[in-house]
Amino acid sequence: MTNKKEEQMKAHQIDNTKKAGLTTNQGLKMAEDEFSLKAGLRGPTLIEDFHFREKMTHFDHERIPERIVHARGVGAHGEFQVYEPLAEITKAGFLNDPSKTTPVFVRFSTVQGSRGSGDTVRDVRGFSTKFYTDEGNYDLVGNNIPVFFIQDAIKFPDFVHAVKPEPHTEVPQGASAHDTFWDFIGQNHETAHTVMWAMSDRGIPRSLRMMEGFGVHTFRLVNAQGKAHFVKFHWKPKLGVHSQVWDEAQKALGKNPDFHRVDLYEAIDKGDFPEWELGLQLIAEEDEFKFDFDILDPTKLWPEEEVPVRLVGKMTLNRNVDNFFAETEQVAFHPGHIVPGIDFSNDPLLQGRLFSYTDTQLSRLGGPNFHQIPINQPVCPYHNNQRDGMHQMAVHKGQTSYHKNGLNENQPEPVLVEEGGFEHYQEKVDGHKVRGRSESFLDFYSQAKLFYNSMTAVEQQHIRDAYSFELGKCESDVVKANAVDLLNHIDHALAKEVAENIDVAVPTTDEGVQSEKRSDALSMEHTIRKTDTRSVALLLTGDVDANQVKAWVEKLAEHNINYSLVGKKAYTLGEMKVKETYDTVDSSLFDAAFLISASSKVADDVLEFIENTYKHAKPLALHLHDDSVLDKCRVETDQPGVFLFKEHNLDHFDSFIEGIAQARFWDRK
């Protein structure tokens, strides 16, 4: 069933899949498109060749400036539906009608790299959602990490300049492991909490479909009576929150730099539609100062044990884009695109973003009419007195383009609040004009310590390894020492191990936060675990039994597990196609592996595949004609998550299915 947004997008489509005669942009039919107009076959090209000039001019201007940050992205269409009316906390229409589906467009992205960078780098991920509501577009512009590096927007250019490739070499691309980034971190301790998240497994998600989203900032929800609550927005993935390990992410980057976007496209094409639940954390205005942190500080989260997340609706992504440039590249998000019932707080980072995004769209999309691009158009009517400008697509009728006017009876005229007109929340503001920071924003370390405390031993080791890798790539001893000093304000043992790994002086005094406080919600150990849409590589060697392989494949399909048959070369096995080879895929691209060997010898590339599966703590199944094929292999078959099948027995296969749902076996040697 199509929605308004789909119909709107289709109205602007040109279907090049159907046969049609070639024309110019003006509709002139062209008989030739391979040769420019010349004065003789070997003569000069003539300037009167309008077809060549039009074609080349368009080509010369096909690229628009990429986003300063979040340049590499992927998008998809979907819909949102609220579970029950939320009238007690907001008058936003799309949050009050459970019978209505609201079209959405979501763009996922990395922060640091250019459009040509890879998907599986260690980075914060953007998670931005455009709701096409009947009251106008609402943009929830967030990340997969609930906090940010800085507290005030005036420092955003400095942060981005520091994390971007260094200007004298344009290196590194899509990575934070370099001097300028860590110099900024060491000089700005407010970054401590967010850097801890980025160095955790949250910085290398398994899939965009298995990633949380956060609005980051504190907003307000306002009901029809004018009562307001502070709110933080969450997206909770129905597949759970899962990550890669660092070695795995690096290998995936080499084998398939488009791993995440391909994963999203293929899931939607197969009908495995990604789903997230919208969660709200709510704090009544009268409770603003009841916590040991400032709720307006964008470097702080609200612990879910203190402020529970209320799940209020579900978003489903169910349609891929038809054209990447027209939709994903041209979509324009803005945290200032809100609807009645949603308003801002005084978060100083949010306040700055409300200016920055419009300014950015003017540069990227060529002028003030970017809202007329189909992907950005609201589904509700819009009327105002804005006219002309670059790329004006509309033909406005009438004599007047101002308010108030008498010639057109003051049309368009402001809408009364009681009829849906937007009204800013009437917050009382009183204070001196100052440049400074509230003292309540000065605790930079407690929540970084909370996050670290909340991790399992394995997750903590991954964090220590990440800091060691990133700082180990830095050249400056001063940068390294300052970063270690920052870590010592969080956790002395963490600082000590990293310092020893990168050969800088270990801090002599323990300045870390002395707290054992934890939040289970922060560890991925407690996430949802299921087999849905997980992927398994079936590694075939020798003359395997096609019927048996088919039975195993059918068993995987029963649990909605994707699979790929992998062989030394592509061939047909019974009714099945072996499409992948050991040259085209790698263990890093799968969640599990199943070696099916009918041979007394297994090639080295096959052994490497299962060794990496084992090394990355993923489920590994083995069905061997000859156990000696593992003699050269660094896999211990008696370890957790290794499933050795001696017979063609589907009952044994169920344990492998359960292992796929578990995903990782961290207690493996």
UniProtKB/TrEMBL annotation:
Domain of life of the organism encoding this protein: Bacteria
Biased composition (Basic and acidic residues): 1-18
One Pfam family it belongs to: Catalase_C
EC number: 1.11.1.6
UniProt-annotated binding residues for heme: 67, 107, 156, 353, 357, 364
Keywords: Heme, Hydrogen peroxide, Iron, Metal-binding, Oxidoreductase, Peroxidase
Chain segments carrying region Disordered: 1-20
3'-histidyl-3-tyrosine (His-Tyr) cross-link, chain position(s): 334-357
Cofactors named for this entry: heme
Any single GO CC term annotated in Swiss-Prot or TrEMBL for this entry: cytosol
Record-annotated active site: 70, 143
A molecular function (GO) term: catalase activity
Catalase core domain: residues covered: 23-411
Gene Ontology BP annotations: hydrogen peroxide catabolic process; response to oxidative stress
Reaction(s) the record says it catalyses: 2 H2O2 = O2 + 2 H2O
Top EC group: oxidoreductase
Keyword Heme part of the UniProt annotation: yes
Function, in words: Decomposes hydrogen peroxide into water and oxygen; serves to protect cells from the toxic effects of hydrogen peroxide.
Protein family (similarity comment): Belongs to the catalase family. HPII subfamily.
Protein name: Catalase
Species this chain originates from: Exiguobacterium oxidotolerans
Gene: katE
